[in-house]
Every structure is written in C-alpha cells, then in structure tokens.
Design a protein that fits this description.
Layout: H1 3-10, H2 24-35, E1 46-51, H3 54-68, E2 82-89, H4 95-112, E3 116-120, H5 123-128, H6 130-138, E4 145-154
Antiparallel strand pairs: 1-2, 2-4, 3-4
Helix pairs in contact: 2-4
Amino acid sequence: MNEIINAMIERRSIRKYKPDMIPDQVIDDIILAGLYAASGRGYQAVRIIAVKDKTVRDRLSEMNRAIGGWNEGFDPFYGAPVVLLVVADKTKPTYVYDGSLVMGNLMLAAHSLGIGSCWIHRAKEELQSPEGKKLISDLGIEGDWEGIGHCILGYSDTEPSAPPARKENRVYFI
C-alpha cells in the first residue's frame, strides 16, 4: 500500500509524552506540511503559532484545563513539549475547513517523522478570552481569528494502539 495511505491508517492520537524537546528542523518540517494544506480559493488564511516556550505552553494548558473543567493539575496537553496553535481568519467562508486541513497535515507529517501528536480542542474558547486575544495581538496578528485546534507534538512515551476496526455501512456507491 502507498506510504501516505499507510501513515493515515497507522497514525494514532498520543496522550503521553516524554519531556524531550523536538529538534527545530523537525518542527519546521511539520509546520511546512501544515502550510501546504489545501485552502478554499487559495486564501491560505490560516496561521500556525508554534509554542516551544514552556511558560507559554503551560499557560495555554492552564487556560485549556479551566475551559474543559478538569481538576487543577491536569494537563490537557499530556506533557507534550510543543504546541502548534492553529488559528484561521473568520472573514473567509472556508476558515474552519481550511484550519482542519492544516491540522490533519500537521498530524500526518508528525507521524511520518516519528513524532507523536494529538488534536486538542478548546482553542476557539481560548482565543475568545482576553488573554487569548492578547496573545494574538502581541504576535502582531490583526483581524478576526478563531482558534481551530492545538496540534500537540512530542516523542511518545507509550505504545500506540492498534487501529480500531472501521464501522460498517459508511460508504455508498452510486
């Protein structure tokens, strides 16, 4: 079977990471794959905020934990040292789809390079908060942006599970 299709079948969401930082070149390669995701009308109206700074990463984790309603001390980023925050320009009609395609590319690229990943939600709610809006503003990103998701990255500290069986009756041919 094709290498790309194999990666799609084998990729699993990882929820336990080693603390080791990923080399910059590997992060750059993963980001490059995200930037080449398809986008409606070629707008390329998605931005990726790469967070490697532990203080900022931990602050995002705490915001996410509070939004999710988990107990203090829980890390919704599961110890991953890198967070790629994907945001999209809400003025574009395809922004949610475009951001979702970026997220998919990021996760597949990470898997292909031996890096664990997982899509973590609640980025939308984070960016609606004053602290989230300040984060975007401090980076010089102007406009009306919505958080699509966090692609957490790191070296897996667990064995990936086998792909679950696919449910029946999900494809119809005409």
